[in-house]
Amino acid sequence: MAAAQNDPADLSHSPFEDVQGIAYGATMAAFGIVLLTHLGLVTGQTAGLAVLISYATGWGFGPVFFALNLPFYWFGYRRMGLTFVIKTFLSVAALSLLAAYLPEYVSFANVNPVVGAVIFGFLSGSALLALFRHGASLGGVGIMALYLQDKTGFRAGWTQLIFDACVFALALTLRDWKTVAVSALGALVINLVIAMNHRRDRYIAT
């Protein structure tokens, strides 16, 4: 008898598939961050806060992003389990390292900021999709938002929206409004890519 469509046993990933999925996601996310910071743009979520801190202090994005994520693993463990936390930790660590070293191997001569913001959005969206489908994430406020939703009923989407609003408001103290507006376009593209392509009923990762 043929296996039922969308049977989790048929759609689960092997360890090798998880490795390549996480490698792809972390690499594309890191490349997107290199492009974003080259253009002096910002983004939302924990990555956006790390970018702002790096702009304000001169510290590298990688170490800041890695450190900011440390408190959120507890929320991830409580809600999604140890396997998710391990995969997410590896993804965050890989992104942090790649973002630190990729600029030594990649440079940009001329990139239009609007085009760059859209490309960043596509890169980051595809990176997150790859990580989600292999049971990982890039940590941060999204994990806390889901945890708070479970505990209080406050919708995770609202928590993330409030956080992003704060990040972009803070960005206005470091960047002009046109730069922030272009940055918001990149964040919108990320959300559209995820909203239109991430389907839990279609893709089941274990």
From TrEMBL:
Membrane topology reported for the UniProt record: Multi-pass membrane protein
Pfam families: YitT_membrane
TM spans (from-to): 21-41, 47-68, 80-102, 114-132, 153-174, 180-197
Subcellular location: Cell membrane
Keywords: Cell membrane, Membrane, Transmembrane, Transmembrane helix
Coarse class of the protein's main subcellular location: membrane
GO cellular component assignments: plasma membrane
Protein name, entry field: Uncharacterized 5xTM membrane YitT family protein
Species this chain originates from: Rhodobacter maris
